[in-house]
Design a protein that fits this description.
Layout (H helix, E strand, L loop, with lengths): L1 H11 L11 E3 L2 E4 L3 E6 L2 E7 L3 E4 L2 E2 L4 H40 L5 H19 L2 E4 L2 E4 L2 E2 H36 L9 H50 L9 E3 L2
Helix pairs in contact: 1-5, 2-3, 2-4, 2-5, 3-4, 4-5
Length: 254
């Protein structure tokens, strides 16, 4: 049924450009903060925009004309609208799956077992969240294209959350059975019941991730257009400020 719904949605939006068809990409990491934007290479800041109107390249303040400032403000404001939206789609997908998994083992097992499960969750999510960071009003997006974000939701996040859910559910029910064996209760949960619980949790996670994938699909044409517009503004800035040509943030992949 979910597959039919997704295909129907694709037909309804047949005129839209899919994420996989968009060749636009972010070539550098982008950090958005309330008072500045930083462009990073290998975790080092090479370009910084302060308050949407001051430009630093490799730590040097660049002299700007009034026309330069207008272009810089447009570029900054577009990044501020766009990057948090992309990051939020990815982070919401991760948090949706993890909150479902963590809610399952709250109050079950010993403190050391819970710490072990939470550490497993943290280890699993560290690699994901190094690419997408949302902390209060700070957003970070690692270098990537729109089709890489599409693959993250479709081909990477879903199977890894599935594996994590199955691993932790098995551990949780094992701990629960051990605890009940030492209690006055004669309760036993069969293996079939246990895996039904796993399946229910995985279905819940997949349903939420499907919704995020559909959200990305619906917005993919708009996202691609925004990146093309950003690229045009960036090219205008580079023509006026040649030092920026070494830091081509938005680009079209060959």
């Amino acid at each position: 049924m979910k597959r039919y719904y997704f295909l129907l949605l694709m037909l309804c939006h047949g005129s839209l450009l899919s994420a996989a068809e968009c060749e636009m990409a972010f070539a550098h990491g982008i950090l958005i903060a309330p008072d500045h934007i930083r462009i990073l290479q290998n975790n080092r800041t090479h370009v910084q925009i302060n308050n949407d109107q001051q430009l630093f390249i490799r730590g040097e303040l660049i002299s700007l004309t009034a026309e330069d400032v207008v272009l810089l403000q447009q570029y900054s404001r577009d990044l501020r609208k766009f990057v948090p939206e992309i990051v939020s789609i990815a982070v919401d997908g991760v948090e949706l799956g993890l909150s479902s998994i963590e809610a399952m083992f709250t109050g079950i097992g010993s403190k050391s077992q819970q710490a072990e499960w939470r550490e497993l969750v943290r280890e699993t999510t560290f690699q994901w969240m190094s690419r997408f960071v949302r902390t209060n009003e700070h957003f970070y997006l690692a270098p990537q294209s729109l089709n890489e974000l599409d693959y993250f939701l479709h081909g990477e996040l879903k199977p890894q959350l599935d594996s994590l859910a199955r691993h932790t559910v098995g551990a949780v029910w094992g701990a629960l059975r051990d605890a009940l064996r030492h209690s006055d209760s004669n309760f036993e949960r069969s293996d079939n019941q246990e895996w039904q619980s796993v399946g229910h949790l995985v279905d819940k996670i997949n349903l939420g991730l499907d919704a995020k994938a559909v959200e990305l699909e619906e917005k993919s044409a708009l996202f691609c257009q925004r990146m093309q517009e950003l690229d045009e503004v960036e090219q205008q800035l580079q023509q006026r400020l040649p030092a920026l040509k070494d830091y081509d943030v938005v680009m079209q992949k060959d």
